[in-house]
Amino acid sequence: MKSRSGMYAVSWTLSYKPSLSNLKPKIIASLFCFFQFIANASYAEMYGNYDAKKILIVTETENGQKKGVDLRYLDSIINDLGKHASVYPPRFDNAADLRRAKADARSLSGVLDILVDTPTASTDLLKRSSLINSIGFMLDIPGSADKADRDFRNLLNQMPDDTFANYRYGVFLADSNQGSKALPYLEKSAKAGVKQAYYSLGMVYLSQQNMELAVKNLEIYKGLTPNNEHVEGLLDAIKSGNVKFKKH
């Protein structure tokens, strides 16, 4: 699995935004998402306290114990992790929250690993496991990228037309410096009605320095999300030539 090494950092000049010249994101899309956080002048919420072991449910039946997964509790943890680490760099209120989040992501991945590492794994669990491991990748947890790729491939083998799987896998591939591989999945999800896919497509093309297709997709996204000043600013920067690339 490829890492973020060799990616392009990008910066552009906008009056209301700080310089990006010193930032080294996993991907250009993550960079811009981080930029949006800055523009909103918001701070990270506190990360919750969870017990990953509680996602496992043991029920006594006539035939013995039956083991299951508490999807509601699992989803609450995933949602909280996603608020802080769905883009790079992660945003946490303090170092203790970050350490706890990493521990939770590792634990959840380990628990689900036993259940999803099979060609016939539950698609409900695969969707969640793929998200957890994608988040783990953003948290720099070793091995997370390979696990996420495994989960997405398994999910798409079972559900090739699933909109969620195509979009999330496309984003993951872009995040892991595989923009060319990401394109067909993002295009498929865009045609299926995922607005954000056009933004992701635009950012992938921008990272490839294909300005024409970058502008085309970002314009579509802009039309689908009126009054989005961040996209307007980016489009203005591209069209005015204020986008600079630096390979790391």
Automatic annotation (TrEMBL):
Record bears the keyword tRNA processing: no
Which InterPro entries is this protein grouped with? TPR-like_helical_dom_sf, TPR_rpt
The TPR repeats are found at: 195-228
| UniProt keyword annotations, A-Z | TPR repeat
Where do the TM regions start and end? none
Q: What is this protein called?
A: Tetratricopeptide repeat protein
Where does this protein come from, organism-wise? Marinomonas ostreistagni
